[in-house]
Amino acid sequence: MINVIDEKYEEILETIWNLSEKKEYSSKLIKNSCSVDFSEEDVTELEKMGFIVRGGDKILFTSKGKTHAEKIVRRHRLTKVLLNSILRIKNAEMREIACKVEHTLLPEVEEAICTLLGHPEMCPDGSPIPPGRCCGNRTRTVANIVTSLNELEPGERGIVTFIRPSDHSQLHQLLSFGLNPGVTLSVHQSSPAFCIEFENTQLALDSQIARNIFVLRTPS
User: pTM score, two decimals?
Assistant: First the structure.
């Protein structure tokens, strides 16, 4: 089991993770990108704890460090989905709250949030959410408030929480129609074509695309 570490160290590990997704490992870039100030002594301490290794100007994860950072990033990005799609928190506040929550979210609460949200794979800014144990078997023990669009019946309404497209061109096409997270839609018909209405727009969707759009059910 990995012990709880100082919040400052978790912020450093999260920054290393975020930059590593872009194949950036420079210690200078990590320091300039981190939300908290840290010293050479802090980096040395993380190295002593077995979370990172240094090679020249690069900072890289050990397997222990990668595992810990992945959990931090997962909690942060799940919280952003929750705040954006259900609580409708503005971007600036969302980032601030998510940064605080990521350090205190218990594993069982994290899994409940993930299940509630339908196991999202991306957060609002398009960053991937590392999967958790609950994602492998698609646990649905929490009330299924967030559901796939194709499970709604004609006349039912929902707020788009996130879209899990099969490719980026599909996502961009849906966004170009104005079908963004936060939009309230209603199902007009489900057969022979799946048709929805939102913001004075009617749109016919392929059933596979409808399965990849997740909504928060709302009263009709």
Answer: 0.63
User: Which residues are 53's β-sheet partners?
Assistant: 60
Distance CA 2, CA 117 (A): 27
Q: What is the pLDDT of residues 54-100, one digit of tens each?
A: 998 999 999 999 999 999 999 999 988 888 777 666 666 767 777 77
Using the 3D structure, point to which of 125, 143, 161 is the last residue of a domain. 143
In DSSP notation, 133-145 reads HHHHTT---S---
**Token reading at 85:** 């799609």
* Domain coverage including residue 214: 146-218
Which tens digits make up the pLDDT trace of 78-90? 988 888 777 666 6
Spatial CA neighbour of 197 closest among 172, 220, 165: 220
Is the distance from CB of 149 to CB of 165 less than 8 angstroms?
A: no
